[in-house]
Amino acid sequence: MNLAVNARDAMPNGGVLTIRTENAARDDAYANSQLQDEAENYAILIVSDNGHGMGKETQDRIFEPFFTTKEAGKGTGLGLATVYGIVKQHGGTITCESQPGEGTTFRVYLPVGEMESDRDTATPLAQPFLGTETILLVDDEDPVRDLGKKILAQSGYTVITAANGKEALEIYQEKRELVSLIILDWIMPEMGGKQFLEEIRDIDPKARVLVVSGLQSGGTAAITREHGARGFVGKPYNVREFLKSVREILDEDD
């Protein structure tokens, strides 16, 4: 989604955004030159736009955390850094081709694994991961927030959502007695995770917070715990591990 958002922003006056997929084998000359994993087959996600494009100097820095070409307040500079981290965590590679005035094409190469047996893939979620508590889910990305709400609701939880830390604080102050856990995205506009954790401690030092973030470099997990979070889950999260972390925090003794 971050790649699509970047493509949109590169076409302020409109344009064409193309998203497609391809398959590639290790013996594909171009694919082989880009890959580091030993898998034989790869899936390729290609995101292209015909926007303003980028020069080489900008391309050399686009995956750096906090680097952005957008106006102040219009971007965190973490979108492509997050994409890069997620791709690498899955054994993949991401490339960028761009010329000023000619648009940009990103290619994400991901290794294709062997299918698990039907018995393995059909294993249901363990019952201990279910619950009936009320959870406040905070994320500025609508699709991510909606997915998280669906996963939690299907596991029995009541879910209240907020799009940023400021809104979440207001909700928590109003419904504090109902909320058993806060699931918090780390990077958000208005009020990010760090500031939220600082302010929630003044309101309720015992508030239980689970941080979720695609930014996992630089000791992010340790930093969130230093600021009072009970746990950390990286994005994109494994549903089972996500629900396991939720249940473990809810079952902790204060």
TrEMBL record:
Pfam families named in the record: HATPase_c, Response_reg
Response regulatory domain segment(s): 134-250
Domain Histidine kinase intervals: 1-114
EC number: 2.7.13.3
Transmembrane segments: none
InterPro entries with a match to the protein in the record: CheY-like_superfamily, HATPase_C_sf, HATPase_dom, His_kinase_dom, Sig_transdc_His_kin-like_C, Sig_transdc_resp-reg_receiver
GO MF, any single term: phosphorelay sensor kinase activity
Main EC class the enzyme belongs to: transferase
Keywords (A to Z) from UniProt: Phosphoprotein
Reaction(s) catalysed by this chain's protein: ATP + protein L-histidine = ADP + protein N-phospho-L-histidine
Modification type 4-aspartylphosphate: residues: 185
Record protein name field: histidine kinase
